[in-house]
Amino acid sequence: MKNYSKFNVPFLLGLIISILFLSCETQDFESNEEQNLYDNFMLEQAFPDETGELLRITLDGDEVDVESINKHYILEGDIKIMLSDNNKSVGRIGGRWPNNTVYYSIQSGLTNQARITNAIAHWESKTALRFVQRTNQANYVYFRSGSGCSSYVGRIGGRQDITLANGCSTGNTIHEIGHAIGLWHEQSRKDRDQYIKVLFENIQSGKEFNFRTYQEQGQDGNEYTSSLDLGSIMMYGSYAFSKNGQPTIVRTNGNTYNAQRNGLSNSDVIGINKMYPPVTSGNTVELRGNNGKYVSSENGSKPMNCNRTTAQGWEKFQVITLSGGKVALKGSNGKYVSSENGNKPITCNRTQIGSWEQFTLVSRGGNTYALRGNNGKYISSENGLQSMTCNRTAIGNWEEFVISGL
Ligand SMILES: [Zn+2]
Question: Which residues act catalytically here (predicted)?
Answer without folding.
Answer: 176
